[in-house]
Design a protein that fits this description.
alpha/beta, AKR
């Protein structure tokens, strides 16, 4: 897990979010942090997919929103995040 990461909190404009993550990856960031509550997981996923950085070199974390707590709701929220991110796997999943 990289020591320094790029967070996407309050990047509501999805095009801006995608550009920001793309630039972060281009400049060397390898940890990208998002959350379901941020509403930008799809933009983060697109930027990762379009980058020249191999997926196994990018540490991706997203977060469960507290209202989705509970065993079944957590599993469902996780799957929704995975779908929005368009990833095969997630490196870290946290409760927000």
């Amino acid at each position: 897990m990289p020591i320094l990461g790029f967070g996407t909190y309050q990047i509501d404009d999805l095009e801006e979010c995608e550009r920001s993550v793309t630039e972060a990856l281009r400049t060397g960031y390898r940890l990208i942090d998002t959350a379901a509550a941020y509403g930008n997981e799809e933009a983060v996923g697109r930027a990762i997919e379009k980058s020249d950085v191999p997926r196994d070199e990018v540490f991706v974390t997203t977060k469960l929103w507290v209202t989705d707590a509970g065993y079944e709701s957590t599993k469902d929220a996780f799957e929704r995040s995975m779908d929005r991110l368009g990833l095969d796997y997630l490196d870290l999943y946290l409760m927000h």
